[in-house]
Structure formats: C-alpha cells, structure tokens
Write a structure and sequence with these properties.
Shape: elongated
CATH class of the largest domain: Mainly Beta
Radius of gyration: 20 Å
CATH superfamily of the largest domain: RimM
Strand content: 35-45%
Length: 177
C-alpha cells in the first residue's frame, strides 16, 4: 500500500489516557463515517503501517477517540503523536452526480459554457478559504476557478470532464497575461 493508494483522514493530536488511547483530529465533514473503523494506516517515516482498532468513539466535534490494539501505555501512545492516518481509496463511498472527491478529478478536462475549453485540472488548492481548481491550459498557463456548486454544471466521470459556468470575464483574466 502506497500513499497514492490512500486518502488522508486525520492526524493524531494528543494522548487521551494513560492506557494508550489517542485523539485523532479528523479531516472530514462527516466524522460519523469513521466511528466503526476496524483499522487505519499510520504514516511512520516512509511507510504506511496498519493499526487495528480495539474501540473508537467520537469526542467533541471532529475528534475521534481511539484505542489501537497493542498500544497499551502512555509511551506507546506518545510515539504516535503528530502522525497522519490514511485509509485505502477503495474505502471511500462512491459519489454520484456533481459531487466528487478532489483526488478523483485530477486530469479531468474543464469546459466553460461561455468560454469553451479551459484546460486540464492539475490540482486542487484547498488551503485557501475557497477551494480552487488548478487548471493548466494548452499554453501552460495556470487558471484558478473556485469550486463553487453553482459554477459546476456537470461532472462527466466517463468522459473525464467538468462543465462549469463561471462569471463572465473570470477566465479572461488569466488569458490576458
């Protein structure tokens, strides 16, 4: 299992008890979907190491309280602090319609209803207040389009294309440079 075969679910942020329990800060809009996990992969160095879960429960808004098998002491738990957790991509529920995972649309073509062909999605920037499609056009220029539901007309998974309807002039801003 490699990182490319997985998706990030959260980071171990603190110890919860002296018996090896940990708190994981989840990166999710739906933390409940992680309550019944049997195992996760923990990134230790360059390796993804499977850890089996004895029990888990939600703790506050987006924290998951976890007791891993064979992590029984405070020292065992301390060694796992600040490590990132992953699950295989196959564990993601399938989305349909205009809903998508960011990793799923990398490589999709973007077409604007007014402008026409925009380019290919090379990444998604979700570090800003508004997530952005990072698109490269045929000339190698970068075009940023906010990922806003009202802009997205259609997600064509089979044709690997997203049709958008952006405000007039948005794409032209990048073409005039």
């Amino acid at each position: 299992m490699t990182l490319n075969d997985c998706f990030y679910i959260g980071t171990i942020v603190q110890k919860f008890s002296f018996k090896g329990e940990l708190l994981i800060k989840l990166d999710s809009d739906d933390p409940e979907m992680y309550e019944e996990l049997e195992s996760v992969f923990v990134a230790l160095g360059n390796n993804l190491v499977p850890f089996f879960i004895e029990r888990s429960s939600l703790h506050k808004a987006n924290l998951l309280r976890v007791k891993f098998e064979e992590v029984d002491t405070e020292a065992d738990a301390e060694a796992l602090l600040k490590h990132k957790l992953y699950l295989p991509l196959a564990a993601l529920p399938k989305l349909s319609g205009n809903k998508f995972y960011y990793h799923e649309v990398i490589g999709f073509e973007v077409e604007d209803k007014q402008f026409g062909k925009v380019g290919k999605i090379i990444g998604v920037n979700d570090t800003t207040m508004q997530a952005l499609f990072e698109i490269e056009d045929e000339q190698g220029n970068e075009i940023l389009i906010p990922i806003i539901d009202s802009f997205i007309e259609k997600v064509d998974r089979i044709g690997r294309k997203i049709i958008v309807n952006t405000p007039e002039g948005l794409i032209d801003l990048y073409k005039e440079n």
